Each structure stands twice: as C-alpha cells, then as structure tokens.
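Hi V.,

You were right to ask for the full record rather than a summary. Here it is.
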Amino acid sequence: MSMREPQTLDPALVDQAIDWLVRLRFNQADEQTQGDFQHWLQQRPEHQLAWQRVASLGDDFAGIPAQLARQTLDSSHRGMGRREGLKLLALFATVGGAAWFGRDYTPLPAMLAEQRSDTGEQRRFQFDDGSQIQLNSDSAIDSDFTPQRRLIILRRGELIVDVGADQHAAHPRPLWVQTRDGLIRAQGSRLLARERDDGTLLAVQGGAATVFPGSGQPPVQATHQLLFTANGPRDLKDNGLDPWGWSDGVISARNMRLADFVAELSRYRPGVLRCADEVAERRVSGTFQLADNDQVLTLVAQSLRLQIDYRTRYWVTLTAPS
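Predicted structure:
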C-alpha cells in the first residue's frame, strides 16, 4: 500500500482556519460565533482539512496567556502575517507555555547549563550557525536550535551575541534570546542581554531587536538600549556605565556614583565589596582593566582619596580616611 502525499492547501484557507482557532481558543465564543464556524466548516471539504491541521496545534498553545496569543496573531499590531504569528506562538509553546511565563529561575538550571562562566571570567565561543557568544562573569546559557529557529536561553548573568549568517541552513533562521522577563528577537548584528535586579537590560548595535514581554504586553522594538520586565518597558536611567565595556575586558565609567561603580566591580570578584554610605555619592570616571580588580580598587581609592579596608580577602570596604 503506497503512502499518499499530504494534500496541498490554499494558504488563504489556512489563514481562515487560524482565524477560527484564535476566535474559538482565545476569546469567549457565543452561539453566533459557534454557528458561523460550523457553517464555514461544512462549506467545503478543504475547510475541514485546513481546520484539522491547524486545530492539531491548538493544544500546544493551551498554557499561553490569551492576551499574548491575541496580540501575537493580530497582524494589525506590527504587520505580521497570521501564519507568521502562529509560528511565533509555536515558539512560545516550545519554550514552556505558561510554565515559561511564570517560571522560577532557581540556581540549578544555571549550574547544569551547557555553557557557563565563573566569577571574574569572560568566555567566548561560537555556534555552528556562525553566531559568536560572549559570557560575562558568573553567567550561564543553554541553546535550542531547530530547523525553524535558533534559541539561546539566558539562565543567569549577561551575554553578548554577534548574530551569525546561518549560511548552512536552507533559509536563514530567526535568532531568539529567552530571558526571565521575555523573548528577544534579533534583527541586527549584535545584541547584549543582562539580568538586573530591576529587569532585563537589552542593548543593540548594528540593527534592532524586538522584545516580547513575558506577561503578554505588546512587543517593543529597541534600536539602542531598553530596560524591560515581564510587564513591559521601564525607565532606564543612565548611570554612567558603558554596558559593552566588559567585552573588551574593561569597566568604563563616566561620572558614575561610587556606590554604583563598586556594585559593578563586585560582579567580577568573589566575596563582598562595598563602600561606606558617606562616600557613596562620590564620582568615578575612567576605563579600568578587569583582569586585576585589586589594582582597580587602588586606583579609585587614590583618585578619590579613599581608604581600602580589607577585613578579609573576601570582605572589602571603601571608606573615607580615618
């Protein structure tokens, strides 16, 4: 018995079936809507076939918030076709549905991640698609590449992605970065993503990126820098730090509060590094090599006339001279 090739469907019918999936799955369907759907379904055998193929995907989307699904599949938001929107929802489904949107970033996934860096270490490597990755201090990622898309999962810390051309794929695949606060689609050559206490920092060079917040808020495009949480963009204040500096092995500050500078430097050394409250508002400017942060402390202390209090090697405080 020979196998029959699947019947080719008119893309317009597939779009109609997707419309019905959205109306029935993600909205409250009244009797009129149900009747209209049954009428459409019985009009032609091809309608039933299109519905069978689209409806088979519906269970994958069961855990996705309805608001996100409606916004994603509503092409009026950003000129995205329905079938493109369905593919995007498929991505959301594969990265965990509702569990992804509310997931808990515990230390265990980072400890078991496929690529990790230690405190004070910056790592560089390359994926088969040509994308070059840099991990900052104490960071971790996983990756999930399929024939349809490239997904990098930031488990902890900070990364920079130089997006590869994906030359070996039949068609260049979109590259996504998943963070605790949402999904980022790269639309340029280089992006940075960093976990902060107040959200995820996204910085872009040579293009743009689109952020899809985890709670289903409308997508946001970034061409420079953007701070966002699962609930959408937040105000981003310039604290004087060059976010790209660490990729060159430096911390570069411009009129930066000493408290902020010390907090940044502490990411690159084990233990506790702090400054006393009375000197927290003093200002730091300059470019400092991260390879020797004890030397950085010495230089800052000399320029700001501070005292370095080493309680132990792992408990250091900058204070005013006694």
